[in-house]
Amino acid sequence: MSTYTSATDADRRAMLDAIGVDSIDALFADIPAALRLDRPLALPAGMAEQEVYAHLRDLAARNVSAEDEVSFLGAGMYDSYVPALIDSIILRSEFLTPYTPYQPEISQGGLQVMFEYQTAISELTGLPVSNASVYEGPSAVGAAGYLAKLANGRPRVLASRGVHPHSRATLTTLAHGYGQTVEEVPLKDGVTDLDALVAALGDDVSAVVLQQPNFLGSVEDVAKLTAAAKEHGALVICACDPVPLGILQPPGEQGVDIAVGEGQTLGNRLDFGGPSFGFFAASQEHIRRMPGRIAGETTDVDGRRGFVLTLQTREQHIRREKATSNICTAQALNALAGVIYLSWLGRDGLVELGELLARRTAYARDRLAALDGVTLLHEAPVVREFAVRLDADVARVVERLAGEGINAGYRLGRDYPEFDDGLLVAITEQRSRADIDRLAEALGRAVAAERTAAVPAGAGASS
What is the spatial distance between Cα 169 and Cα 163, in angstroms, rounded to a whole number? Predict the structure, then answer.
């Protein structure tokens, strides 16, 4: 008998006879011999369950989580507070373990969740149509690029350098498959360079991709950038941080055609990188080009309110050449956490949270900019994140602060060589004024120490 299945030798013999082959090896006859391993995998001997638990416990202990340090790391994923209410609902079996709601008569709860989620995202983005979520933010940007291709067939996409590096990479990878090229529009003073965008635009541009706030934390003038794109008939895709939308003008009200984004900050934990969800909203004309699924409201034969799957664009459901995604069922669980979080906050709570972040971020920005050896990378308005320049080796400064239990932020040089001296600092509602003061004091010491260490021995001595 196998270690993991109950198939016996007799069971396997019966299956091979039914197939009409003599051995399991015969099933792989069409695979060239050079590509077959022809030996057991080089794996160590198995361990008892108790030993496996101890081993995994020791590995886990080597990780440092946001619970173990004061984290100012953001760059798209944030240490936001997740209320206990969320787990109490999403861990219910009817939400935790369902499959696609093909049968609405037994899936009203799941379908209503999808419908309420779509309503919340539409209200947040100012666009009339939302799907029931996609995998995460970068793939949402990539899917939006494909929608633009379907809408106008044009070959070029212009993406601001302020769009998240992962989103730009995903967009570029997918665009190659459907015959588009992606060109970057540079930044100027921390925001998308409007003049450079205007110079790059043409009637062959399918879409312009922006981010609000952008990767450096700057609030973009989306209305002006959108107006420039519209002069050439290009669609505008805006990747949004959903929490700042509580205090920023919704993208739909600024002429944006497609609003997408990362939903992790809406009731989903960091969890070492995922899972999270991506949201996707668009104007009405694009509803049949959208990826994923859309739940709709209807009435049954007795006139009672009910919900159904209105639109499905998975390749499992329609002709493959007409499909626009392969989004899976399980993603709805993360979206459920998102709509619970938004309901928990309420309209006023979302505004209050946005204002709180803006105030704390302004305080942190002023505190850090006052330090010797620290300057602002840009002076554009920000909401929850900002960038500074350090007159010291950024990696070593970050390492020094880690030794004090502080994650100082994201080293911009990892993705922006032009900002090799840059540090991106994020503020969430979990970072208090005392935490910010602690960061400022530790950062000041670390920068001073690194500047001193960088001075060669004897430098500055008189002869």
Answer: 10
